[in-house]
TrEMBL record:
Keywords: Apoplast, Secreted, Signal. It comes from the Eukaryota. This is Dirigent protein. Pfam families: Dirigent (PF03018). It comes from Populus euphratica (Euphrates poplar). It is found in: Secreted, Extracellular space, Apoplast. Dirigent proteins impart stereoselectivity on the phenoxy radical-coupling reaction, yielding optically active lignans from two molecules of coniferyl alcohol in the biosynthesis of lignans, flavonolignans, and alkaloids and thus plays a central role in plant secondary metabolism. One of its GO terms (cellular component) is apoplast. GO terms for biological process: phenylpropanoid biosynthetic process.
Length: 186
């Protein structure tokens, strides 16, 4: 009997400890000091849309080419982009900046990418850059990238950007919603 009680007490103690660890892990996270929700629009060059394209395949595996995304899962394709950033999801809204950089597809078995890019702002309201890097597990509804730094209005910032695919058409257009939460603001 005493042994059973001891075991129960021990289990309870472990439970309390583990829940403390879990809650202190979250409570140690600061609140964001700034938040921006923006959209960017990517139109991939497909051999026919040179006028409208905002991105281009610049590298492809030996079995692919630069007008069609590689099979399977675009593995090995490297795409450079200069995409308009808008405040809402409308491609035709006045851009408030450009998303510039690259993404590369890095897994044969499923669709995943690695992103390295900047939001470049040059308007009366916003000036400067926010710089992003990280893995994009495209099959997930939301994906977190690191905000690794910034300049101008975003001097020395850091944070997390949550990506959501807001629209996707025929391998030729996609729109990402980017929820930027900054934890260091100066
Ligand atoms: C380019 O965009 C315009 C306006 O969205 C559209 O009407 C036109 O069909 C597009 N052209 C090409 C070649 O995709
Ligand atoms: C590129 O590859 C696709 C097949 O993935 C093929 O249909 C297309 O004709 C190729 N284009 C060029 C320019 O080689
Ligand atoms: C930023 O805007 C200013 C004023 O409109 C312009 O002179 C400058 O060339 C722009 N810089 C870039 C990188 O677009």
């Amino acid at each position: 009997m005493a042994a059973t009680k001891l075991i129960l007490a021990l289990l309870l103690f472990l439970l309390v400890c583990s829940s403390n660890i879990a809650s202190s892990k979250n409570s140690r996270r600061p609140k964001p000091c700034r938040r921006l929700v923006l959209y960017f629009h990517d139109i991939i060059y497909n051999g026919k849309n040179a006028k409208n394209a905002t991105s281009a395949i610049v590298g492809s595996p030996a079995w692919g080419n630069k007008t069609n995304l590689a099979i399977p899962n675009r593995f090995g394709d490297v795409v450079i982009f200069d995409d308009p950033i808008t405040l809402d999801s409308n491609l035709r809204s006045t851009p408030i900046g450009r998303a510039q950089g690259l993404y590369l597809y890095d897994k044969k078995e499923i669709l995943t990418a690695w992103f390295g890019f900047s939001f470049v702002f040059n308007s009366t309201q916003l000036k400067g850059t926010i710089n992003f890097a990280g893995a994009d597990d495209i099959m997930k509804t939301t994906r977190d990238l690191s905000v690794v730094g910034g300049t101008g209005d975003f001097f020395m910032t850091r944070g997390i950007a949550t990506l959501m695919t807001d629209a996707y058409e025929d391998d030729r257009y996609f729109r990402l919603r980017v929820d930027v939460q900054l934890y260091e603001c100066f």
